[in-house]
Amino acid sequence: MAPLTELYHEVPPTCWPIVYSPDYNITFMGLEKLHPFDAGKWGKVINFLKEEKLIADDLIVQAREATEEDLLVVHTRRYLNKLKWSFVVATITEIPPVLFLPNFLVQRKVLKPLRTQTGGTIMAGKLAIDRGWAINFSFFSFLFEGVSKATIIDLDAHQGNGHERDFMDDHRVYIMDVYNRYIYPGDGFAKRAIKRKVELDWGTEDTEYLQKVQTHVEGALNELRPDIIIYNAGTDILDGDPLGGLAISPQGIVKRDEAVFRAARSHRIPILMVTSGGYQKRTARIIADSILNLHNLGLIDKELATSDAKNPKLVPE
């Protein structure tokens, strides 16, 4: 049977299941400076990992742009048509000056990076199924292709109302969401899609946070055994983040990622990590340190990923 998307292609076994493209970064006439997110963060993480000799350009998977057909798996054509209006994109991206740009520029300089990030997530999802784990350096997005059941573990500081609305009545998807109850978006309707909801207070710190994450990740995986875990590893939980409102230390973030990967390994479930939100310059270094920690502990490994690619769930602990 032909693949459901052209994004699925053979990846050399010499490559890490790490997906990235320089096209992820939104850089045009200073637009990236008008939003608190560091638009160049993904490239900085890659550079840190290169400096540590973990990866090289020819050892990572280059993301491809998702097509309209790929996007129609989860979005309606009506929604995609709306993106031909610059004011709609300005609202979605929270960058008001986009309103004044011709839409051909919006398509090329704003939406193409986002479509490439989505394409990267689709590619990384296939890699995770094949090899047991994968990482995509981008915002969180997920499109269902060839998966029967998935568990989304959303540990970004904000409620994940986008995918919650997307998968509201999709029984293939189990959503666990841990977020600051007092910040945007506060989407009561979308909360109906959350199977395991953990609402945090302002200023939640490491000890309470890590205990809740470990308890509820284990509970979620015991409740339903998915084909894949989609892990939204947002770093906007970091103490001092202007939007997240939590107080997690850099080491707390490293320990959080470790706990999720340990749970995936102990249950023998493939995991896709998406690095997602985080609005401080130092988050790039923290993400890199976390990935290095996962590697040092043997929770991610190129040989591990390729040695049992046909049956990643049976990789021994």
Explain this structure:
This is Histone deacetylase domain-containing protein. The model is unreliable at 306-317 (pLDDT under 50). By secondary structure, the chain is α/β, with parallel strands linked by helices. It has helices at 41-51, 68-71, 77-82, 86-93, 103-131, 161-166, 206-223, 250-267, 283-296, 302-307, and strands at residues 18-20, 61-62, 133-136, 150-154, 173-180, 196-200, 228-232, 271-274. An 8-stranded parallel β-sheet has the order 2-1-3-8-7-4-5-6, sandwiched between helices. It is 38% helix and 11% strand.
Sheet with the most strands: spatial strand order: 2-1-3-8-7-4-5-6
Q: Specify the number of helices.
A: 10
| SS content category | alpha/beta
Total DSSP E strands = 8
User: What is the ordering of alpha helices and beta strands?
Assistant: EHEHHHHEEHEEHEHEHH
Computed Rg: 18 Å
Instruction: List low-confidence stretches.
Output: 306-317
Shape: globular
Largest sheet: 8 strands, parallel
Helix content estimate: 25-40%
Q: Can you give the mean pLDDT?
A: 86
* Strand content range: 5-15%
Instruction: Determine the N-to-C terminus distance.
Output: 34 Å
Summarize the structure.
38% of the residues lie in helices and 11% in strands.
Summarize this structure as a short list of keywords or feature phrases.
globular, single chain, disordered C terminus, histone deacetylase activity, 317 residues, alpha/beta
